[in-house]
Design a protein that fits this description.
56% of the residues lie in helices and 0% in strands. The chain is mostly helical.
Length: 200
């Protein structure tokens, strides 16, 4: 194995060690326009919900593009579709369905998912992802499932976002691997406080 490949694999193992080797190429291949995206594993409504949640988790800022601009929702769906085994796919879908249920539990049966507001998405993220460990002890089975799904979605979103070429080379501190090794240096001085990119 080449040193470059070894270093890339070590970096990936920090987060998603079990992801298929083709994950990065899948991510770079997600170039569909948001309006034309047809999910591969999720339903259309589930895709809408994932897009809106991911947009709140990683919104566009003055200095960096948002998750939607680098196709993070498309990647999450495609990765699950192409690389998860049946058990993991079912677990993933079960979690997404728990989120859907939480968002629509008080709605009319004819309610359209596209009518959900930013405030409703923000409320579910705050309820679960800002909850304290002691509060989560009182969650029922469905709430625990929803919390796990939202926490997983947040983790996948951040990982996918930081792994894109656009973010890796233009937003994060980027230096092609292998680079020089400098032992005792100030990170802020070296990268202006930016995290290192996983791009190689």
């Amino acid at each position: 194995m080449k040193r470059r490949d070894a270093l890339k694999n070590i970096g990936l193992s920090l987060g998603y060690a079990a992801v298929a080797p083709s994950a990065l190429s899948i991510l770079q291949g997600c170039t569909t326009e948001a309006e034309k995206w047809v999910p591969q594993l999720l339903s259309i409504d589930e895709g809408i919900i994932v897009k809106n949640l991911v947009d709140l988790i990683l919104p566009k800022t003055e200095t960096s593009p948002g998750a939607l601009e680098v196709n993070v929702p498309e990647f999450i769906d495609l990765l699950a579709f192409k690389s998860y085994n049946e058990e993991d796919k079912n677990k993933f879908i079960k979690g997404i369905k728990a989120i859907v249920l939480e968002l629509t539990v008080d709605k009319d049966p004819e309610f359209q998912i596209s009518k959900l507001t930013t405030e409703e998405y923000d409320a579910i993220l705050a309820k679960y992802l800002k909850s304290k460990p002691e509060d989560r002890k009182d969650f029922n089975k469905e709430q625990k499932l929803t919390f796990g799904a939202l926490a997983g979605l947040r983790g996948q979103s951040v990982w996918a976002y930081k792994t894109t070429e656009q973010i890796g080379e233009n937003v994060l501190a980027y230096r092609p691997v292998p680079g020089s090794q400098n032992g005792c240096i100030d990170v802020n001085e070296t990268t202006d406080g930016k995290a290192w990119s996983l791009q190689a």
